[in-house]
């Protein structure tokens, strides 16, 4: 269902780390977006659902095998999805081991109608590879050729870190989906 809401996800701003004797954690504003749509068609064999959004556009999603109550979804049902995104960054202490972990889970709703929560979390260690005080921006590199550059709103924060510093970045995403019966 993530593709259902991917267009409404706001990118989290990056970097507001302070250099101290102990690692400091920065949690960015939690992003919560809500989207609704109506089930227009269902292809049971491929587990594909076509949804019509309020603006008249259509989106097609595939319900994976972890969606246990797929057969209960009906044409005309209203889908309510709330998407949550959070980013936490932590400046690493010297000598701390690097991390690269990913977890995900699906929790079915205990309601009468199908629904549930699908969540994933990824934590990586990234290295600051560039700081541009003029723009201002910062570039990180991480495992598997991951690279990310972001504008920084508070230029003073860039003075608190240096190229070569390591940070642990944790992304948490979840989508909570509920259905209401069609009319």
Structure description:
The structure is a single chain. The chain is mostly beta strands. The protein has one domain. Strands 1, 2, 3, 4, 5, 6, 7, 8, 9 and 10 form a ten-stranded antiparallel beta sheet that branches. It is elongated and about 60 Å long. The two termini are 23 Å apart.
Short description:
By secondary structure, the chain is mostly beta strands. It has helices spanning 2-5, 155-158; strands spanning 25-27, 31-43, 48-52, 58-62, 78-91, 100-108, 115-132, 137-141, 147-151, 166-180. It is 4% helix and 50% strand.
Number of strands: 10
Largest sheet: 10 strands, antiparallel
Give me the oligomer status: single chain
Number of domains: 1
Write the layout of secondary structure elements.
Blueprint: H1 2-5, E1 25-27, E2 31-43, E3 48-52, E4 58-62, E5 78-91, E6 100-108, E7 115-132, E8 137-141, E9 147-151, H2 155-158, E10 166-180
Antiparallel strand pairs: 1-5, 2-3, 2-5, 3-4, 5-10, 6-7, 7-8, 7-10, 8-9
């Amino acid at each position: 269902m993530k593709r259902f809401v991917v267009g409404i996800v706001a990118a989290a701003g990056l970097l507001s780390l302070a250099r101290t004797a102990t690692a400091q954690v920065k949690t960015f504003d939690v992003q919560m977006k809500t989207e609704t749509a109506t089930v227009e068609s269902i292809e049971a064999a491929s587990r594909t659902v076509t949804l019509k959004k309020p603006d008249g556009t259509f989106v097609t999603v595939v319900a994976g095998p972890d969606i246990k109550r797929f057969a209960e979804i009906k044409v005309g049902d209203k889908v309510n999805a709330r998407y949550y995104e959070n980013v936490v960054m932590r400046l690493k202490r010297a000598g701390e081991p690097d991390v690269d972990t990913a977890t995900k889970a699906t929790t079915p709703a205990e309601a009468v109608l199908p629904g549930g929560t699908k969540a994933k979390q990824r934590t990586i260690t990234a290295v600051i590879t560039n700081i541009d005080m003029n723009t201002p921006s910062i570039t990180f590199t991480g495992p598997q050729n991951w690279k990310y550059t972001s504008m920084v709103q508070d230029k003073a924060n860039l003075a608190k870190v240096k190229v070569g510093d390591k940070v642990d970045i944790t992304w948490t995403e979840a989508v909570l989906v509920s259905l209401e019966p069609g009319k």
